[in-house]
Design brief:
Helix content is 0%, strand content 41%. It is built from no helices and 19 strands. The mean pLDDT is 95. The strands form eight sheets. It has a four-stranded mixed beta sheet, with no helix packed on it. The chain has a three-stranded antiparallel beta sheet with strand order 2-4-5, with no helix packed on it. The chain is mainly β and 203 residues long.
Amino acid sequence: GGDKSVVLENIPEDIFVSYSGNTGINAGDYIAVASFTPKNALNMNAPSSMICKWSVNRADYDMSGISWSYEQPIEYDGTVQEIKLLNVPEGLKYDLFGNVGINVGKYEAIAVFKPVDTANYNTPERISFPWEIIKADYDMGRVKWNYDKQFAYNGETRRVSLVNLPDSLTAEYENNEAAHCGDYIASVKLNNENSNYNDTTFP
């Protein structure tokens, strides 16, 4: 970003040198001309001017500090999850693709870069980053059987079932109905209808 210049070396002490075209800031090709004037012009001839073709090359961005806002798989919670690109060098624009997700799965985020100053900076290669949303566990903390005390026989069929089941869980019961006096053991199989959650059992 600073001035670049070329100068002659090993110039004789009895020669003055003046330059044109020997400094540059932006990337590009330049032609420097060095003109000479003898300090003792009466006794010395001026050497011929010297020409130097030189260049300022485009710079590369320092991409070593770039990282993603992701340390470990993200657990599904029904909201949009997003990972971001961090520590992008100043003057470098970028577009992100594949960095947003909702459902469980493996994703690949891609960053495509574009320098603000395309004349003086090289465009970095795109970078990709794998990330993942993993299945969540159902909150079963409030699930229970709707059975608090023994039923009194009245000739009707009595039934027990689970209450406070999370959405997307359906129950298949065995031995949860009876009409006669006796001790029974009900069992349940829970069907998971949401692929974003792990299968579960109760109790």
